[in-house]
Structures are given as structure tokens and as C-alpha cells.
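for the writeup, i need someone to sanity check this before i put it in the appendix. the sequnce is what the collaborator sent (i think, or maybe the updated version? ugh). structure was predicted straight from it, no edits. if anything looks off just tell me and ill rerun, i have time this weekend
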Amino acid sequence: MGGSRTDALVTGGAGFIGSHLVDALLQRGLSVRVIDNLTSGSVDNIRNHRGNPRFSFLLGDLMNPEDARRAVDGCRLVFHLAANPEVRTSSVQPERHFQQNVLATYTLLEAVRRVEGVEALVFTSSSTVYGEARRLPTPETYAPLKPISVYGACKLACEALITSYAHNYGFRAVIYRLANIVGPRSRHGVIYDFIQKLMRNREELEILGDGTQTKSYLYVDDCIRAMLLGLEASRESVEIFNVGSEDWVNVGEIARVVAEEMGVRHVKFRFTGGVDGGRGWRGDVKQMLLSVERLRRLGWKPKYNSLEAVRRAARELIRELNATHTI
């Protein structure tokens, strides 16, 4: 990269959360490099930054050591968001999740170790590392961590690798355990799925599980604010923060909100009944609510509660997808 310095690398920066992070970093005046293989991300999410001299894009795959080295070279901060985001498929495609989450993280860490100059690495982990937590809201200190999905297990493995590399190779690490993050540009998850299903059939909506799955949903702008604040405030070699709203909403209520926002009346909700006591799929955590007290003490609090975040996200996704004729 010619030895020039870049403030921040964002892996997966063409994806949902990653592209919003890129927006925020550029707005703060930082220079930003993105690496993305565009498996789940889209150049449309970062197209508006073309021509910005503080922005650069690298089409590459973190499982390729040379791509990882080129991406990290000259970067002061590394935001690692690249991952396979589909929790539901992890039980049927465990090898793919291991490769795209754990192996890719290891390859990135090796690049960070070999390329001097990285001061801090920020990692987006997941609430799924807690598994079926017996304490709700769940604090960062909760133990033992027993993920019930392959996705959650992979995220926990990444946390362990990052922690050990930070201690051994002299950079700080900030790990965020995210609740369900929602908002524009998202192309997976329950809200997106419901919109797609209702566009195909406005008479009936299939809902996986029994509809009582209840979780925390956070609007993406609140998530980005939390990530940047936690990084600025962190002082330890490794810091872990929960990121989520302070309440929760169930899947049945989300279905109602999406139908309302789409103007669909008299739709019949058909619950599949699910597996293992009403879960949407094997490995689905049925109840999740994170304690965000650590971030609150730093002065952060979410602008939107779970229901408001869901409604806002649904409204924006409907508008977005209608504009691109993808629904």
C-alpha cells in the first residue's frame, strides 16, 4: 500500500452494520479502507463514498492471507465485522461458518501480528455466545458461556483468539456482544424475512416457531454510537461490552408491526410451532436481553427501544426495497 497510513480498516465494510460504521468514521474525518468479498455485502452500500480521497475499497477475502495482509498494511485501527451472519444456517453448514468466521478471524489476526502499527482491533461478537442465559438481563460477566448454535460457538472462538493475540502481540481489543441490530441495508433477519414473505403472499404470513421468542432489538445508529464510544473509553488490553436495547419484543409483535407498515390488513399468521419448545430453528435462543449497564456508565443509552427500532427498520427497509424493485 505504498507505506501510507490509513486510520481504519473495516472488514465486511460493504455489509449492513459495516457500511453504517464506514459512514460514521468518514463523517468523523478518518481515512477508511474496506475489505469485503461481497458475499453478503453490496457495493451499493458504500457507493456514495466513491471519489472520497479518504476512502478506499479492496475486493478480497480474509481467508486469503495475502488479502488480509494487504488490508491491514498501514492501518491504525481494525474493525472486524466480516462474518457469515446467518445464525439459522450454522447448524446445517457448520464447516462454512467455521471457515468464514473462525478461520477468517485467525487469518486476520496473523496479518495484524505480522504487520506493525495496529493499535486496536474492534470485533463484533454476538449475544449468542451466552446461550440460554439463566440471568436476564445478562451482564458481560455471566458464566459459563454455553452457546447453543454453531454461529455462537464460532463467535466465542473468535473472542478467545482475539483475546490471546491482544495479550501476546501488543494491541488493544474491544469486543462487542451485539443484540439483534436492525435498520436500513439489512438483508437478513426476521424483519427482512417477513417483508419478503408478505410481498409474495399478502394473505398469510409463515412465522417460524411459536411466536413467543422474545429478544432485544437495537437500531443500527444506536449500535454505531455504542461501538465508537466504547473504543474511545476502553483502557484495558481487552474490553467486552454488551450492545442492545433495554427491553425486548416477541416475534408475533414484530409480524404485526411489519404487516402494519406494509399496509397489509387481515393477514393470517401461521406459526410453524418450531422445534425444541417453540424455537424458530435448532440453536435459536428463545429469550435474550442483555445488560448494557457498562455502556450506560460511559454515557451511552439507546435512542429507540426495541419496538421503535423494529418499526423504524421495517419502514425504511420497505421503502428501500421498493426503490430497488427487489421485493
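Residues 94-114 form the longest helix (21 residues). The mean pLDDT is 95.
thx in advance!!
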